[in-house]
From TrEMBL, chains A, B:
This is Nicotinate phosphoribosyltransferase. Its cofactor is Mn(2+); Mg(2+). Belongs to the NAPRTase family. GO terms for molecular function: metal ion binding; nicotinate phosphoribosyltransferase activity; transferase activity. It comes from Sarcophilus harrisii (Tasmanian devil). Pathway: Cofactor biosynthesis; NAD(+) biosynthesis; nicotinate D-ribonucleotide from nicotinate: step 1/1. Catalyzes the first step in the biosynthesis of NAD from nicotinic acid, the ATP-dependent synthesis of beta-nicotinate D-ribonucleotide from nicotinate and 5-phospho-D-ribose 1-phosphate. Helps prevent cellular oxidative stress via its role in NAD biosynthesis. GO terms for cellular component: cytosol. GO terms for biological process: NAD+ biosynthetic process via the salvage pathway. Residues 405-516 form the Nicotinate phosphoribosyltransferase C-terminal domain. Pfam families: NAPRTase_C, NAPRTase_N. Transiently phosphorylated on a His residue during the reaction cycle. Phosphorylation strongly increases the affinity for substrates and increases the rate of nicotinate D-ribonucleotide production. Dephosphorylation regenerates the low-affinity form of the enzyme, leading to product release. Its EC number is 6.3.4.21.
Length: 528, 528
């Protein structure tokens, strides 16, 4: 069962936001940001204009691309950022006792009214060295904001990128369900992972809270504990089920399933006594609760000798009453081999018992599905439940290219991105159809040649989302960002989308930025 | 700078708990727990007594041990667990429309008044297969609680175990600072990691929120961005510093540092012109803000030709005014080699300038310090900043040993644990000095021999922390749990503490539990 929910839009200032209180903890930062703040303040530099950029030095997971994500959480954090008296009191207790009391007075008035955020849209393709987010504002404040914004953008973008890679492997049609909550880094780690797995391309999550708070479609049926909690010796409780049509008398589903079990075992050459009666009782109980959404989890005992015939018995009993089972799930063993065998048995039974839809019911698989396993599975299966990998990878906050920058994506006539161009913000924007000389970014620092090209079209990458304390461009809904991600990925050339050894996507500098960087490198080499 | 804070105690029912609202989200669970709940309810089994156990099938990171952690978060979750009308409305929107409305009425009355939690104390040693936590209560509710309790215990225990391993490598004296917030799985992932790194043996965290909310000691000084934000051409702002004694006239620290730079460079055979003036300006600014807690971050430019002489210049200027610098930090390059060289230069300058304390100031290192790097560093350095690894490892919730169990740790006459004994709860407890026959747990399922032993002393491992909806044993403070962890680890034999290929710690079953298990295995093999 699965149902998309209304999306949680960013709410206007003042309205109730269930997450605002938790998100708005201004002390979510490293202590060294505050010790540096004291020193900036002491040096008379607190209000000096400053900017920092968040970008990937290398895209995660060996990708040529990343997905930009986490902007909504940043907006929520910034809008409500304030140091409450209790926060300042706590800070005073951990900073040296001789810290100037005027510093703490200064903190009392601190808010984001002087802060501006430029960022790539949520869900867009982000390449190495191109900023995902630029924060500008007073030096002291921007320094304090560095840690929370990194924390909010970094993990969200990693999870979204990982999900996008799994979606590329699975192809557009397969259903991908994330169910990693129990292994997540705490409740909020799980909430974030479920949210951004969806943004990156998963269809749904098992995490109910992600559904309630973030509008992620939720899905799920049953686990082994349910199956093994039935022994089969219980008296079936209220086993009567009315036909789907509403016409005709209710039948005892338990008895009906037992009679179908004999026919199924005969057809498949199995022994009915080898099937587990508790497993069948569990399937009957689940089918009674959800006759229109019955799914069998097959591997609590033996998939082929018990789980499968029990599923078929209940599914055919349901069919007799006019209901269609949803399918089965496998959670252990050789998933692909078993899925093949099960599909052929479904075909056989569909034909033998004249229930055509049985041939095509879904076979879902789960159990530590990573990119490698998914690659093997992807061509054969209808539906896959995976847990996106949560590898944390280095994301660097160090600014290597000088100056406040603008960024543009240049497209060829077919609409495929050619390269991303970084330039100084004050330079005139490039124009479609106009020849342009650019300098491909050479990370190794060596000298490289300029490139001349004429983009068929282009778009600016960084938009102002937050200006002087106000959200000035609404963040699209999560589902809209998810669509943008898939659309952008769709335009990217296959050579960049390749998951292993992808061709690096080119990022280039304008003439002016290139000259500025060259000058800096030389002056550094010559010493101060 | 570092200061332990008052610990956040679990607050009595009704008092304000800043985290309660965020933690008490009853929908923090997998949807399949609710679909199963519908089916249990439909089958008349909602109130049937049930129990599940949380344990590690294999201890994480290849350890022979884990640390039990996360209990406090579980208590917080359970105490406030309630499905609010909005939660139930949301559930109704994602479950099939024909779900019996009486099910949702049943959910309205659901709370933890029928739930009992037995658990190993926070911070205690937990071995594979011995439950960290046992939850008993009505089947439907216990099923819903499975995911959030796993989520809360699993990650906390992983982080604590990882921290304990790093502490074993570093030895008891070295200072370990966790600073992983910016790479964490979102804000709460970071909060949890900082909290349980401390419990597992770290000294402090850079995460200010973990200090404020959880009482973790916080520490931190400055980052590269601070150093590089000074060019050196700025006019020093308010550079006058009064002597530490309060006696005598303030001096211009900037000028003083410059004059010391000449002497330092002469002593070390360096050229003062090669040092970066911006770096020195940053050090002076930081020293003016924190004259009693000055630390130099050495690797923004060149450690040996700029960072170190600049640090020494400022440290010696401070010394002239009666202040002692805290030390230096290295964040790149060959940390060990550099630390050696720096220590020898400190000795040389301490002697040359007659500032004895300079010889022994701390050399802190950071930058992706994992177990391997730490092993190399541990013998040489005073203080290490690391980021505990956040590997998620399989934690299984599947119950393989039947029945409600009691667990005891048996000790030899020297107070070292010999083995953990699992038995049925109804069996009489073993006694110190009394001979006992036990069956070592054979995970492979093969037959193994019984063992006879006489424990010198023993202790029960599982205590009742929550009974019928009430917290019935206070959770010790975080710092107390941290002490318990180190004390328990101290008693464990070195062969089990070895980080690579440790000798597995033995877990054994009582005669009765062993017989019960054997019977079950046989009946499974014979089929139902």
């Amino acid at each position: 069962m699965e149902k998309a929910q209304a999306k949680l839009e960013l709410q206007p200032e003042g309205e109730q936001d269930p997450e605002a209180e938790a998100a708005a903890r201004a002390l979510l930062t490293d202590l060294y940001q505050f010790t540096m703040a004291v020193a900036y303040w002491r040096a008379g530099r607190a209000r000096e204009p400053a900017e920092f950029e968040l970008f990937f030095r290398r895209c995660p997971f060996g990708s040529s691309f990343a997905l930009a994500a986490g902007l909504r959480d940043c907006m929520r954090f910034l809008r409500t950022f304030r140091l409450r008296p209790a926060d300042i009191k706590y800070l005073a207790s951990v900073l040296p006792p001789d810290t100037d009391p005027e510093f703490f007075e200064y903190l009392q008035g601190l808010d984001c009214s002087g802060v501006t955020i430029r960022a790539q849209p949520e869900g867009s393709l982000a390449f190495a060295h191109v900023p995902l987010l630029c924060v500008s504002g007073p030096l002291l404040l921007v320094q304090i904001l560095e840690t929370p914004l990194l924390c909010l953008i970094n993990y969200a973008s990693l999870v979204a990128t990982n999900a996008a890679r799994l979606r590329l492997i699975a192809g557009p049609e397969k259903r991908l369900l994330e169910m990693g909550l129990r292994r997540a880094q705490g409740p909020d780690g799980g909430l974030t992972a479920s949210t951004y797995s969806y943004l990156g391309g998963f269809d749904s999550s098992s995490n109910v809270l992600a559904g309630q708070l973030r509008g992620v479609p939720v899905a799920g049926t049953l686990a082994h504990s349910f199956v093994t909690s039935f022994s089969g010796s219980e008296q079936p409780h209220a086993p009567m089920l009315a036909p789907a049509s509403g016409q005709g008398l209710p039948r005892d589903l338990s008895t009906l399933a037992k009679s179908w079990l004999g026919k199924v075992c005969e057809c498949l050459g199995l022994r009915a006594e080898e099937t587990h009666p508790g497993e069948r009782a569990a399937f009957v109980a689940y089918a009674l609760a959800f006759p229109k959404a019955f799914q069998g989890l097959l591997d609590s005992y033996s998939v082929m000798r018990s789980g499968l015939p029990n599923f078929l018995a209940v599914a055919l009993a349901l069919a007799e009453l006019g209901y269609r089972a949803v399918g089965v799930r496998l959670d252990s063993g050789d998933l692909l081999q078993q899925a093949w065998e099960i599909r052929s048995i479904f075909r056989k039974c569909a034909s033998r018992f004249q229930v055509p839809w049985l041939e095509a019911v879904s076979i879902a698989v789960s159990n530590n599905i990573d990119e490698k396993v998914l690659t093997r599975l992807a061509r054969k299966l209808v539906s896959v439940r995976g847990q996106p990998c949560r590898k944390l990878t280095e994301d660097s906050e160090k600014q290597t290219l000088p100056g406040t920058k603008a960024a543009f994506r240049l497209y060829d006539p077919e609409g495929a991105p050619i390269l991303d161009l970084l330039q100084l913000e004050e330079e005139p924007a490039p124009r479609a159809g106009q020849e342009l000389r650019v300098w491909p970014l050479d990370v190794s620092g060596g000298d490289c040649r300029s490139l001349t090209l004429t983009p068929a079209s282009l778009e600016p990458l960084l938009r102002v989302y937050f200006h002087l304390g106000q959200v000035c461009e609404p963040i699209p809904s999560l589902a809209e960002s998810r669509t943008l991600a898939q659309k952008s990925l769709g335009c990217l050339s296959p050579s960049h989308k390749r998951l292993e050894h992808p061709e690096p996507y080119q990022v280039a500098l304008s003439e002016k930025l290139h000259a500025l960087l060259k000058g800096l490198v030389q002056s550094n080499q010559e010493g101060p």
